[in-house]
TrEMBL record:
Keywords, alphabetical: Cell membrane, Membrane, Transmembrane, Transmembrane helix, Transport
Claim: Transmembrane is one of the keywords in the record: yes
Top-level taxon of the source organism: Archaea
Protein's name according to its UniProt entry: Sulfonate ABC transporter permease
Entry membrane topology: Multi-pass membrane protein
UniProt organism field: Methanolobus chelungpuianus
Record's subcellular location: Cell membrane
Lineage: Archaea, Methanobacteriati, Methanobacteriota, Stenosarchaea group, Methanomicrobia
Spans traversing the lipid bilayer: 16-34, 83-105, 117-136, 195-219, 239-258
Cited PANTHER family: ABC TRANSPORTER PERMEASE PROTEIN MJ0413-RELATED (PTHR30151:SF0), ALKANE SULFONATE ABC TRANSPORTER-RELATED, MEMBRANE SUBUNIT (PTHR30151)
Domain (ABC transmembrane type-1): residue spans on this chain: 76-258
Example of a GO biological process term: transmembrane transport
InterPro entries from the UniProt entry: MetI-like, MetI-like_sf
Location, primary (coarse class): membrane
Amino acid sequence: MARGRFQKLKNKGVEILSVISAVIIWQLVADYIVRNRFFLPSFTDVAEAFLITVSRQGIFPFMGMDMELPVLLVDTLYSLMHFSIGLVAALVIGIPVGMIMGWFRSLERVFDPIIEIIRPIPPLAWIPFAIIWIGLNPFGAGFVIFVGALFPIIINTFTGFKSVPRIYVEAAKVLGCTADHDLIRRIAIPSALPSIAAGIRIAMGVGWMCLVAAEMFGVSRNGLGFKIWHNYYLHRMDFVLVYMLVLGFLGLLIDRAFRSYLEEKFFKWRTGVVM
């Protein structure tokens, strides 16, 4: 087992060396060229700020109890809650809409012009309506994330359904599968699944990028995005970088976990295809 781990580490040698080199360059530039913590905190400044955020305690309400946790973990849990609200709503609405648009031509003609008019509007432009319609609460932040995540899901689901090979549908009809709901369940969904999964991955990325803005307008006093702006106003740029890096690593972790789950559960048959 130890030999296997060593081999795995050896195979990742270039990537590890690349990250270490970037950190060294960052440290040297911050210490000897910029020399100003406000403009560019060094790696050691950020590491020190990270330890402070981990050592401080915060309160996370859970099922009527106030749980005392490291403040960084509390902020992460709040952000994951906002992100989950938006993404789940986008999945619940986006996938069915994309499916019916891709399968029924008449419904595509009904929905397409509306979606094409609304889709180019940036998610951040919806913040005033998020405040008016939903208020300053976690669902308000979730709404902005929902708007960002919705359209990639609709478009990719629609494209996946439109790309179902006609010969599959004809063959299913010959074998007695004639009802629309049977054709959708047995032919269209399996065929469109790679495109739907790609849409969800894009939606997760867009929704995660909307998180900072979604937490800016006072939905709570916690959250990774909120703390970025809070520390900026306090001129603590080392803490700003800590929260930015946590956002980056967490986004990467979510994407990798989703990819691994898909490949393990649904795409084993796609040997050699990069998802």
